[in-house]
Amino acid sequence: MERYFIDLMLDQVKRGNRAGHTFNKQAWADMLAVFNAQFGSQYDKDVLKSRYSALWKQFNDVKILLGQSGFSWDESRQMLVADDYVWDAYIKAHPEARSYSTKSFMNFNDLCLIYGYTTADGRYSRSSHDVDFDDDVHGVNLVEGFCGQVPSTTERLRTDWTPAMDQYFIELLLDQVGRGNKSGDTFNKQAWNDMLASFNAKFGPQHGKRVLRHRYKKLWKYYSDAKALLKQNGFSWDEMQQMVTANDDVWDAYIKANPHARAYRKKTLPNYSDLALIYESTYDNYSQELFLTVGEGKDSQNRPSGDRTRTYWTPPMDRYLVDLLLDQLLKGNKLGQTFITQAWTEMTASFNTTFRSKYERDVLKNRYKHLRKQFNEIKNLLKQDGFSWDESKEMLTAEDPVWDAYTKVNNFPLLIRKRVLFST
Prior knowledge:
Residues 1-90, 161-254, 312-406 form the Myb/SANT-like domain. InterPro entries: Myb/SANT-like_dom (IPR024752). By secondary structure, the protein is mainly α. It has 3 domains: 2-159, no CATH class; 161-281, no CATH class; 289-301 and 314-424, no CATH class. The protein has 14 helices and 14 strands. The chain is flat and about 75 Å long. The two termini are 47 Å apart.
């Protein structure tokens, strides 16, 4: 609820609806309507305003502490840190600060953007238009540094996101999910380090971990909003257009009650099924086993007791899926990077019949995307000096020094070094 409320406030800041030390009347009305619709509540404006004041107090307390000697911000833990003797001395003089010594503030960066330009006496020191947000792929502006030291507009770090960057980042996230490095709502520290190294190797060294984490939260919002829409009567998913669709009267009625949903009326979400794998806390039709590759399949007889339903990919399953894909390709049913809806329907039915399974279409689609990623990795490697394809072994080959040099520079998955790829 707090995360959602903060997102609503960020949206209103972007729209220029912050006046003085608070938001204008229409902004509060819009936020209240959207919040109550999201959580099925019946709160009045005073509830949100009270939370707004509480968050402002927390923000100011942390900001004051960061201004004291010996205190600093731990980005990985999202909390204030200081030596014990520093905390002891400060708490002795300010007992109310004790809770901040063990409390994390997952949304502090966003609170900087909401409260950062408000002075202690409640006046607004800069125009809300100075804070530039862009919800679209093509521009995500992050304020670097902490409030009170917020750079000017021209000094802000700007990351111009492109569809290619989103696709690569999502593939990195999927890979880390497959490795079991997602804990709760986020990834462990090593996973973020690995993803950042890979991302910067591909798109340049100027990106920081905060940039990726901000995009991770933004993609989570897109997914959550789309998922909420699909639960409403009259809304459905258009596989061809990769977007949420509904009749005009359905959209009009919903947007009237939920103004924030307007953006999704024409917004495409080409990675929606991948985002489901990343952000869902449980997997009924998916699991980490989706990411098993050729030669790494598990015997279904060895499943742990009480384990959830999982997709155990084996070489015969991959081989059969590849044959289905080839058949649909020959029929002319491939459109762009994927296949038409009817093709997926036919392949899913045939696959389930052969393996006596009950998989949904998205299971096959995600395996297809994984195989495509694997193919692109091999294709890129074959363009490098020293790499070649061994037809008899059906695998990539190179001298050990070539492999060692490449994996050191490119953070490349070591498994590919010994992997047999019979269907490449």
